[in-house]
Design a protein that fits this description.
Layout (H helix, E strand, L loop, with lengths): L1 H11 L5 H7 L27 E5 L3 H12 L3 E6 L11 E2 L1 H6 L9 E3 L1 E5 L5 E3 L10 E3 L2 H15 L2 E11 L8 E7 L9 E7 L1 E4 L6 H5 L7 E10 L2 H6 L3 E7 L3 E10 L4 E7 L6 H11 L1 H4 L3 E11 L7 E2 L2 E3 L1 H4 L10 H18 L9 H29 L3 H11 L2 H13 L7 H29 L1
Parallel strand pairs: 1-2, 1-11, 2-8, 5-13, 11-18
Antiparallel strand pairs: 3-7, 4-7, 5-6, 8-9, 9-10, 12-15, 12-16, 13-14, 14-15, 17-18
The structure holds flavin-adenine dinucleotide (FAD).
The site of flavin-adenine dinucleotide (FAD) has 39 residues, from helix 3, strand 2, strand 8, strand 12 and strand 16.
Amino acid sequence: MASIALKSFFGLRQTTSENKSIVLSKPTTQTHRKFRINASKSSPRVTGRNLRVAVVGGGPAGGAAAETLAKGGIETILIERKLDNCKPCGGAIPLCMVGEFDLPLDIIDRRVTKMKMISPSNVAVDIGQTLKPHEYIGMVRREVLDAYLRDRAATAGATVINGLLLKMDLPKSTGSPYKLHYTDYNAKTGGAGEKKTMEADAVIGADGANSRVAKNINAGEYEYAIAFQERIKISDDKMKYYENLAEMYVGDDVSPDFYGWVFPKCDHVAVGTGTVTHKGDIKKLQIATRLRARDKIEGGKIIRVEAHPIPEHPRPRRVLDRVALVGDAAGYVTKCSGEGIYFAAKSGRMCAEAIVEGSENGIKMVDESDLRKYLEKWDKTYWPTYKVLDVLQKVFYRSNPAREAFVEMCADEYVQKMTFDSYLYKKVVPGNPLDDLKLAVNTIGSLVRANALRREMEKLSV
Ligand SMILES: Cc1cc2nc3c(=O)[nH]c(=O)nc-3n(C[C@H](O)[C@H](O)[C@H](O)COP(=O)(O)OP(=O)(O)OC[C@H]3O[C@@H](n4cnc5c(N)ncnc54)[C@H](O)[C@@H]3O)c2cc1C
């Protein structure tokens, strides 16, 4: 079973329609560069102004969406409740994000080239061995990344409002606007802000896992993990060890269904864990993660404690009329790795591109069919990746013996290459049939050993 899953994993990473979108919003260093769309659609023209779109939430999804909209001729308003928001997050981003989103290297704290995968019995496997000299996993602080993307959206022409969306009135008739009620903290009225409303032709909900936009369109709920993280300042000496190295810990102690991590940042490490099934135990799991890394973080000072939900799967509804959800609001985090930053920025951009295209650069009204194009493209491009990571999580995170097998498998260079290539580039890397076969045999071997070990352990605990 595992071998089939792995084989599909390697075969199903796709490049197909992605290329088109890259051409559409080709990253440039000139953030003002506009792009033109020639579409043929019989939607009514917007008169006296351009299409107005409100983007709610200024994380990676909102920042990327707002920049693309503004560059595409849309009147864009980005509402973010906290402009210095430190989103609780490990901040690991794939190499392709740096290129695709034209990120300057000075916003990346660390370039990780060594990753240690550590088993329940503390067997450590180094899994960065196949990386080429220019390849790395980027480590960012979210307050830095998010502010950068938002500022770039503003430079492209978006109006950024420091405001909290309270609720949204849906249009009363076809083509009439959405009315957004929000607290505006830009106003010089003290900390409480000022209640205001604004109208928009379309709305992008990029307001994260607790999305109010999603509630307003009855998008439905999703299962979620709770993730906990501590930023720990350690001595310069200890920091040297983590200079370009990250750690992932697996085991029932750190998480029954996820993993614990130590990710390096500019002057501290981020230590965290997550779980769907044992949310009430999250602090206990965090202590266990800290304990596993104790030799390396000893004497460290906790400088920040943070926690946040991570969606487990897409919401039942992601588009309604002229409202679309992107990023965590839509539920785009992969299982197994818990990765969501790239997918947030990517979905924000993809959704905005669909609006720019459907509105012919802001001169025509959009409708649900325009927004659905974003969904179709998204699902076609990424659905297999989500599915495969879901299967991998079920196979390898289910028990300590299975995790031991997983770590054992990670020692294989072929596994490392395929895993890193798919993580770093998010696209199809053709597998080598002979190595695929070898891997399948090894995987089955590891799992058989894992199951035998589990049976032995079960006997012991009777
Ligand atoms: C502890 C933890 C560790 C993680 N580690 C990683 C990792 O290493 N790598 C990775 O790729 N992913 C990681 N993730 C997942 C990643 O953080 C998310 O997938 C990503 O932040 C989603 O981006 P987003 O823009 O959709 O939402 P968010 O980043 O949540 O941004 C939403 C924004 O909307 C704003 N907002 C919310 N409500 C309102 C409102 N009503 N009005 C106005 N503004 C509002 C918020 O202030 C916020 O700025 C981690 C998550 C957690 C919790």
